[in-house]
TrEMBL record:
All residue ranges annotated as the CBM21 domain in the record: 19-126
Name of this chain's protein: PP13G phosphatase
One Pfam match: CBM_21
GO MF, one annotated term: protein phosphatase 1 binding
A single GO BP: regulation of glycogen biosynthetic process
One cellular-component annotation, GO: protein phosphatase type 1 complex
InterPro entries: CBM21_dom (IPR005036), CBM21_dom_sf (IPR038175), PP1_regulatory_subunit_3 (IPR050782)
């Protein structure tokens, strides 16, 4: 069987975003689900909201930005002073070992448009083979 694939973050996990970074950017990646599943990537975002309508989306690509997809993030219960949003990125089954998923987070409100793009580097998840992998290795034992 082919090896099981994992999406591994290619950026340091800075933990929860600091108040200063959130104040400066107004939007920050909070955390990714661990481990990132080979079929989808889930995460949460913190937003320093203001009055009026707002939109939080995650822009992602599998082909080095030749094309991209914007997916909306859904509101979660807030943790003052920030609002929280959750997102899911669908991973195509054609993703192969060594390929990458790049993403950035956009927040639009009456106050403007704000991005968290990992300091201009974008967030990157690398597709890696799991040692001893294969679909059977990831499945729970049968009865």
């Amino acid at each position: 069987p082919p090896p099981a694939l994992l999406l591994v973050p290619d950026f340091p996990d800075g933990g929860e975003p600091g108040a200063e970074r959130l104040r400066r950017q107004r939007v920050c990646l909070e955390r990714l689900g661990r481990p990132a599943a080979p079929t989808d990537v889930r995460g949460t975002v913190r937003v320093l909201g203001g009055p009026g309508p707002k939109e939080v989306t995650v822009r992602y690509t599998f082909n080095e930005w030749l094309s991209f997809v914007d997916v909306p993030a859904a509101p979660l219960p807030p943790e003052p002073p920030a609002e929280r949003y959750g997102f899911t990125l669908c991973v195509p089954p054609s993703l192969r070992e060594g390929s990458a998923l790049h993403f950035a987070i956009r927040y639009r409100s009456p106050q403007g448009e704000f991005w968290d793009n990992n300091g201009g580097r974008n967030y990157t998840l690398r597709c890696c083979g799991c040692p001893g992998g294969g679909p059977a290795a990831a499945a729970p034992p049968g009865p």
